[in-house]
Amino acid sequence: MRKTNQRLLSIALSFFLLGFSALSFSNENINISDVWISEAPPTVSIMAAYARLENTSKEKQTLVSISSTNFSNVELHLSKIVDGMARMEKQQTLTIPANDFIELSPGTYHLMLFNPKVPLKAGDTTTITFTFADVVSTTVEAIVKKRNNNSHEHHHHNH
């Protein structure tokens, strides 16, 4: 009986340690920080999120998909001024140069989060998963913050 318990403990510890090594590997080349979602009225079906993506490796890293269990779909967009009008264009990928970073912020690159499964208000958190071309995924926590009425928040949706 005692050997069986020791064996089970060894197996459980092995899986536990494997999980930690996978987590540390996923953050080896990419640091994702300052992840936040702009608060929106509870009836809104699209929200915006922002973050800092830092590539600490000696090679470029390409973001190929983003997802969240709390939203039906997450897309990467770029805001641009075209013929004097602010427009958003969906981006398929985002390449972060070696030893550099990209800010996802209002008025530039940002995430569009579609159809929240539950209403989110300031102070709430949810997770967002970023997947890179080398098949490394990193899941981070995003906090919902009150929107700043002076910023370039998404009042326009001309795609």
> Secondary-structure element sequence?
HEEEEEEEEEE
Mean pLDDT value: 82
Strand content: over 45%
Number of strands: 10
Q: Any idea of the CATH class? A: Mainly Beta
Name of the CATH architecture: Sandwich
The tally of structural domains comes to 1
C-alpha Rg, in Å? Answer: 19 Å
Query: What would the CATH topology be?
Result: Immunoglobulin-like
Largest sheet: 10 strands, mixed
The stretches of 5 or more residues where confidence is low (pLDDT under 50) are: 7-26, 150-159
Name the overall outline.
globular
Distance between the termini: 65 Å
Name of the CATH superfamily? PCu(A)C copper chaperone
Fraction of residues in helices? 10-25%
Total helical elements: 1
Structural class: alpha+beta
Textual characterization of the structure:
The protein has 159 residues and is of the alpha+beta class. It is built from one helix and ten strands. It has one helix at residues 2-26; strands spanning 30-38, 46-55, 61-67, 71-82, 85-91, 94-96, 100-104, 109-116, 125-132, 137-145. A hairpin with a 7-residue loop joins strand 1 (30-38) and strand 2 (46-55). The radius of gyration is 19 Å and the shape is globular.
